[in-house]
Amino acid sequence: MSFDGLWPYIYIAVAGWLATDIWRWLGVVAGNRVDENSALINWVRAVATALVAAVIAKMILFPTGALESSPVALRLAAVLFGAACFFLAGRRQIAGIAGAIAFLAAGLALTGP
């Protein structure tokens, strides 16, 4: 078995693993020493939440691919419906996600291409 053509891919895989895995291990070590209620952790949670909200807003307001052909009102209604499902199901994420997807799929099926 010859690895002549595979060395660049092996190098990329190993270098990528090393570059990300080191930070994961440092996160585990540092995370065990940080208080869950500290200002640092609250800031990290706020930034993570803001990033997720920004991605969702981008998908709603500036969609690409299959979502691009759907009406903005349908996308907004799907998000609202998903939020309602999330809260009515006792803050279960899967209920919110499934509700939003089902609402969007039904809306797309009813409005047609």
From TrEMBL:
Keyword Membrane on entry: yes
Transmembrane parts of this sequence: 6-27, 39-60, 72-89, 94-112
Keywords, alphabetical: Membrane, Transmembrane, Transmembrane helix
Keyword Signal: no
Descriptive protein name: AzlD domain-containing protein
